[in-house]
Amino acid sequence: MRLPASLLSSLAALSLLGAVLASPQASARPLSSLHESPLKARARGIPVALPLLTDQNVEFPATPVQPEPREEASEVEKTEPPPKTVRTSPHLAADAPVSAGAWMMYGTFSLVPLGGVYGASRVGGERLWVTAAETLAGSLVGSLPAGLLFLQSAESGGRWTELDVAAFGAGLVLTPPLAALGTWGLGELVFHGSQDRGSAFLGALGGAAVGTLLGVVAHGVLEEVVDNRSTLQWLRKYIALGFIGSGATVGYQWAGGGPRTRSR
Question: What gap in Å lies between CA 239 and CA 235, rounded to an integer?
Fold first, then answer.
């Protein structure tokens, strides 16, 4: 029995389709990957052994990237910075000799109070020894609080610390009235007194205030011209007190109008 032609063509098509579907997967791979030379594979960035393992399901693990070791710090960078130097006063030379210029400076400043004593005698027409006594009285009484003006400790950084500033302020406030009281009291009680007692006391107070400021400045200047603070310390204080007493005497004689008329 002969089969129809349409049935034969259908069977042929089905057999051809089954042959295509039943072919292995390897036949679908391009031949270029199987037969590619190692040089061409390296040129495309593929390792040489990779084409040989394409038929095997091998997974290549990722190569870990090792970080580059950090260079250790050099010995220069590891060295610690030098310790901070402590600032010290330049006036620390022990037993430093006093220069000729320093002696000249001290002598010049010593003449200022003496000139004030003489000027006070010329202003009010008072006797010279009386104005000298009034200056001495003002300096002695004013020296009680004036010692606070010269508290300068080298270890604590000089006058500019809290306690030293408080002491300096107290001395600056208390010294003028006490120095004026000493000069005015000696002139009014021991000697013949002034023509105007109230104005004389105010004049002595103003003169003592100016003398106190000038004495502090003179003390600081004289301290800077020597190489050791303990050298001539007593002379600096006496010169500063002389500024205070002579200032009080000049103000007392000028504002008081001179001494009263002495009875014969």
Answer: 6
- 252 within 8 A of 119, measured Cβ to Cβ: no
pLDDT tens-digit series, residues 225-262: 886 667 788 899 999 999 999 999 999 999 988 887 65
The pair of three-digit structure tokens given for residue 124, joined into one six-digit string: 């009010």
In our burial notation (b when 16+ CB lie closer than 10 A, e otherwise), range 177-187 reads bbbbbbbbbbb
Task: Give the Cα separation of 28 and 30 in Å (integer).
Answer: 6
CB 192 within 8 A of CB 259: yes
Cα separation, 119 vs 250, whole angstroms: 7
CA-based torsion, 142, 243, 173, 259: positive or negative? positive
- CA 77, CA 241: separation in Å to the nearest integer? 58
Angle at which helix 100-124 crosses helix 233-256, to 10 degrees, equals 20
Distance between CA 138 and CA 149 in Å, rounded? Answer: 16
- Contacts for 41 with CB less than 8 Å, ≥ 6 apart: 47, 48, 50, 51
Quote the longest CA-to-CA distance of the chain: 190
pTM above 0.70, yes or no: no
Compare 163 and 90 and report the one with higher pLDDT.
163
Please give the angle made by the CA atoms of 234, 240 and 245, to the nearest 5 degrees: 120
Rounded to 5 degrees, φ, ψ at 196 are -130, 105
